[in-house]
Amino acid sequence: MTTPRLGVWWLVAVGLVAGIALVLSGAERLRLGGYVIAASMGAAGMLRLLLPSRLTGGLRVRSRATDTAMLLLLAVGVAVLTTVVELHPAR
Q: What's the whole-model pTM score?
């Protein structure tokens, strides 16, 4: 029995780790980090949609349509939340 390969999942993981590192580095990079996370999730959705199933590896969880829809919806949600977050609250 062989373990399944993760495929292009590694590319998405690198983007997510980079985004999280930016978010944790300080408030001035919070918005950039959020956009990097959203872009990584959007790229994951597009990769799941466009690549054949044998190449998607760790991105393949449910059906192609469900995986793509969930990843793209999450990407849009993260981007919207990143846009509306108030970094400097009024005092």
A: 0.87
